[in-house]
Known about the structure:
Blueprint: H1 9-16, H2 18-48, H3 56-60, H4 63-89, H5 120-124, H6 126-132, H7 135-165, H8 173-177, H9 180-206
Amino acid sequence: MPNHPPTSRFLRFLYENSLLLLGTSLVIGTLVGQFFTGWHEYNSELEDLGLAALSVGQYARSGHFLEATFENWESEFLQMGLYVVLTVWLRQRGSSESKKLYEQEEVDKEPDPGKEDAPGPVKCGGWQLALYRRSLSIAFFLLFFGSVWLHAQGGAEVYSIEQRQHGKPAVTTLEYMATNRFWFESLQNWQSEFLSIVSIVGLSIFLRQHGSPESKPVDAAHGDTGK
C-alpha cells in the first residue's frame, strides 16, 4: 500500500474508494450471473408446467427474479441493522467487534456542532441531529422492510402461478406473507446472517488477520477488547 497519495487524480480516486468499488463490482457481477441462470432455470420450470417461456425483459419484471433477489437482500439488511444497534449497548470481552468493556469511546461522545467539518445535520441540531445520529440503523431497517415486501410480492406471484396450476386460488402479497413457505424462505436466510455475526464476534477473540481493521493486532492478548 502506498505511504503517500498517488499523483494521478484517477489512481487516487481508485485507491481511496477501492473497497466500495470492488464490493459494488462483485454485487453487480453476481447479480448478473444470478439473473441469467435464474432466467434459464425458471423457464425450465415453466416448461414443465406447460407455460410459455419468458423473454429477458419479462423475467426482469417477474416474481421469480424479484423473490430470489430480495429474499437474500432482506437478510443482509437485517443483519447489518441489528449489528449496528446491538453493538451500541452489548459487549463481548476479547472481540475486535465490540466496544471497550468499560471505557468511553469516541463514538459515545456527544456531537460537536462547532466542529468545522461536521455534517450539516450536526450543525443544525434539533430534529435533524436527532434523526442523523440514528440514520445508519434507520436506513438499514427501512431497506430491510422494503426488501421483505418486495420478496413477498415476488413470492406471491410465483406461488399464485403454482396454485392456479393445481386449480387453487391465487394469493395476495399479504396472504402469501401468512404462509409457511414465506417464513421458511425468510428464516433460513436470517439464521445464516445471525450465524455470521456470532462467527465474526467469536472468532475475532482468538484469531487474527494482519492488516485488517476487523481484527485485533496480531500480538494482542485474547482478552483485549475492541480494535
